Amino acid sequence: MTLGQVRIIGGQWRRSLLAVPELPGLRPTGDRVRETLFNWLGQDLTGWRVLDAFAGSGALGFEAASRGAQVRLVESNAKAVAALRQTLARLQGAAERVTVHQGDGFAALASGGYDLAFIDPPFGSDGFERALAAVRDANWVYLEAPREIAAPIAWRTHRHLKAGAVHAHLFAREN
Cα–chain-centroid distance for residue 111? Predict the structure, then answer.
């Protein structure tokens, strides 16, 4: 069963719809927050390697891929993975930039090898702190959490916003 749809707001697949399966804790990042996030990051992510560790609907990952990034979507729920694969098959050229994996987002974060990590665990879970601690090698981390989170050691808060019940954080690695 599908809860609804969200739209990609920019880039190559602008206005394309993404299915949002009805799953506990699945609340895609809203349009306003995504628009703000990609204003912070820039509109052209060509050459960026991006990990969407708790992909859900894929809104963050497909949004990054629409702007040129190479994206790895990781999701543990089989129903959500099936919806992600359907979206991947439907978007022209997406297979060149996006891979979908059913698996553990925490393990994916610990594997490293990406420039930007999206951390948006199921709404209401407390996995955001554990996920943030698992990050390896990223230069940027985007985190959604139910409260404001201080930047971890070796990171700085680049941007923060509160939208409804969500705190959106963009952390940059200190050089």
Answer: 16
